[in-house]
Task: structure prediction
Amino acid sequence: MNIQFNEYEIELQQMQEVFNDIGVDALYLSHHELAAATEFNAMSWRDFLTDARVREFLESELALMQQSSIMKMMKDIDQSKSTGQAQLLNTLIQQTSQSKKKDGPIFIYSYIPLNEEETYAPNVQTLQSDPFKVDVPDNQ
Result:
């Protein structure tokens, strides 16, 4: 990890160096385990691990590791007779495809009947058909 923290984030820079010194195993350690292995406390590690820049790096690193594991398993899948390995491979692939789903606002359209004041308001337009309904012709 090589995040450029600003000059006021000295502790984050120091924690990054310690994190890098631990090596790849640091990716799997909780903030409590990191605190037990270093001179920084658990809350400092929690702040470090939840920093947006660190989080982005960790997510990309874990995604690369997951992809690598999938590729290794696919290479050896034809030599394996294990259904467990096939199930694990399937689960990893599903997790990878789920993580690529886009997040964003969810719109829920609903019908709310007008109250009496709204019914007679001059700027209200009442629709007689569903504006979101798409007519699909029957295949006959």
